[in-house]
């Protein structure tokens, strides 16, 4: 409950406050964004970074149902120089659909990528000099949600 309340204070999910005793309605997007933020926290990301990446992911979630390949969120924490990392990304990652960068307060950087295909996500997570990386399959939870919402 505490993690959910903290995320709510950070704007995840982005729904209006209805007051005590009133029903709140969640859309599919709200549930998936909350799932992403909680999964990232479970994998060790700070709540602010998790909320930022979940918000970044939300912009792409509408297209998930139309993808033939599974879609993955790859998050990498790195202290490597930005120019070197961006150079690697440009030459070796043609299946990246979206990318985001967050500068951490302790000096490192966190990159988030929406990637098509499990093989590409695994290559992404293992071929860089990232301090840590996480991969979340976005397609499976999205497909499990009811169509009407």
Descriptive report:
This protein is α+β, with helices and mostly antiparallel strands and 149 residues long. It contains six helices and four strands. A four-stranded antiparallel sheet has the order 2-3-1-4, with helices on both faces. α2 runs antiparallel to α3. It is globular, with a radius of gyration of 16 Å.
Describe the secondary-structure layout.
Blueprint: H1 2-9, H2 28-42, H3 47-61, E1 71-78, H4 82-92, E2 96-103, E3 109-116, H5 118-126, E4 132-137, H6 139-144
Antiparallel strand pairs: 1-3, 1-4, 2-3
Index terms:
alpha+beta; 6 helices; 43% helix; globular
Proportion of residues in helical segments? 40-55%
Report, as a whole number of angstroms, the end-to-end distance. 23 Å
The gross shape turns out to be globular
Strand content: 15-25%
Radius of gyration: 16 Å
Total DSSP E strands? 4
- Low-confidence residue ranges: none
Helix-strand string: HHHEHEEHEH
Helix tally equals: 6
Overall mean confidence score, pLDDT = 76
Order of strands side by side in the largest beta sheet?
Answer: 2-3-1-4
In short:
It is built from six helices and four strands. By secondary structure, it is α+β, with helices and mostly antiparallel strands.
């Amino acid at each position: 409950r505490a993690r959910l309340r903290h995320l709510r204070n950070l704007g995840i999910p982005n729904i209006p406050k209805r007051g005590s005793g009133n029903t709140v309605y969640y859309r599919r997007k709200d549930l998936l964004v909350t799932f992403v933020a909680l999964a990232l926290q479970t994998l060790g990301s700070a709540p602010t970074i998790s909320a930022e990446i979940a918000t970044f992911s939300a912009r792409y979630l509408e297209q998930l149902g139309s993808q033939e390949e599974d879609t993955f969120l790859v998050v990498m924490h790195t202290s490597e120089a930005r120019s070197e990392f961006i150079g690697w990304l440009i030459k070796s990652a043609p299946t990246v659909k979206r990318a985001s960068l967050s500068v951490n307060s302790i000096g490192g950087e966190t990159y988030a990528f929406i990637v098509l295909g499990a093989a590409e996500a695994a290559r992404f997570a293992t071929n860089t000099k990232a301090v840590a990386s996480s991969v979340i399959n976005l397609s499976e939870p999205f497909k499990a949600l009811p169509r009407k919402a």
